Amino acid sequence: MKILVTGGLGFIGSHTVVELLKENNEVIIVDNLYNSKIEVLEKLEKITGKKIKFYKYDLVNKEEIEKIFKENEIDSVIHFAGYKAVGESVKKPLMYYSNNLISTINLLETMNKYNVKKIVFSSSATVYGNPGVVKYTEELGRKDASSPYGTTKCMIEKILEDLYASDNSWNITILRYFNPVGAHESGLIGEEPNGIPNNLMPYVMKVASGKLETLSIFGNDYPTPDGTGIRDYIHVVDLAKGHVKALEKIKEGLNYYNLGSGKGISVLELVNTFEKINNVKVNYKIVGRREGDLAEYYADATKALNELNWKTEKTLEDICKDSWNYEKNNK
Ligand code: NAD
Ligand code: UDP
Fold first, then answer.
1. Where are the beta strands (DSSP E) in 138-291?
2. For ligand 2, which residues put their CB under 6 angstroms from it?
3. CA neighbor of 255 nearest in space, from 126, 313, 128, 168
4. Catalytic residue flag (residue 149)
5. What is the pLDDT of residue 251?
6. Which ligand 2 atom lies nearest to the CA of residue 230?
7. How far is Cα 75 from Cα 219, in angstroms, rounded to an integer?
8. Is the CB of 60 under 6 A from ligand 1?
9. Which of 62, 66, 84 to mutate to test the pocket of ligand 1 (most atoms within 8 A of CB)?
10. pLDDT for 104-119, tens place per residue?
């Protein structure tokens, strides 16, 4: 299969490219390098031993997308490209709506024109809003997301639904990720956030390596066993494999799947495991709750198991080990 991977040099896209090539798919990457580096391409070629076709194009520019479809017989698309920083999206909503929505509409229109009607889209557990339960099933449906970033995910899901309603020859799979973390075991690719990280695992890595002094744990008075927030952390390689399965099993229709481990992990559990498995110290202090944070949620990933034959294989220990290996390699 010839697969166009948008945002394929980013964190999740790059790991997915590795898994797609392992299964002998042909991959074409498009990425404007807004949040990734060209060196990732060389690293992907090193890991896989394969040459990868790459376009440094911006999906907001429809003519550029069209060139890719003209030059290649594409079978399907995995659409990762987009801006993803929740906090930044609150400060710069127009930038988020414009990039995430226009690039997706351009892509879908071009796919339509070239009769490429198979797409896997990167959505997020954020579309569930605050549903009042801790275990999220796909049936919960979308609620108002708490940030412009989350709203772009809700809007794109709706655009895909409307597209399918208008033409049911499309095959659309929407994957709702929980908290992607970890890195490839080679230590060559991983998550490289710009500036000071907002998310827990990248922050833990920077504190462990001495680049940042102290991790602030946002609240230890939640109604959870140790009082700290609980999330479902999923190793990025497991997540990447979920995309391969989703494409293999893509079927007529529009389907949603949660991709998570199905297990809740607290902030303290993650920090303690990171310290223990890597034999490093992570200085932390407890501070107040972060505005907008939920106490606890995790995936019900039964649907992905039943229909895609996918489940996570890696443990929290693997996540902590691989994250630290990447951080040490990229000091
Ligand atoms: P990332 O920022 O590492 O990767 C996205 C890539 O898209 C980057 O390489 C960026 O340069 C590229 N890009 C952005 N706008 C583009 C445009 N207009 N044209 C071409 N390329 C463009 O992010 P990621 O963590 O790999 O996330 C991938 C997808 O998964 C995103 O859509 C994100 O919203 C979604 N997602 C991520 C998480 C997470 O925690 N990482 C959770 C849920 C959903
Ligand atoms: N968290 C924390 N300190 C940080 C970053 C995050 O205590 O510096 C907590 C946060 O309150 C949440 C969990 O870690 O309970 C995961 O947060 P992250 O931002 O990684 O993901 P999200 O909130 O989007 O699920």
1. 171-177, 179-181, 215-218, 230-231, 233-235, 253-259, 265-266, 284-287
2. 179, 198-200, 203, 215-218, 229, 231, 267, 290, 293
3. 168
4. yes
5. 80
6. 15
7. 47
8. yes
9. 84
10. 999 999 999 999 999 9
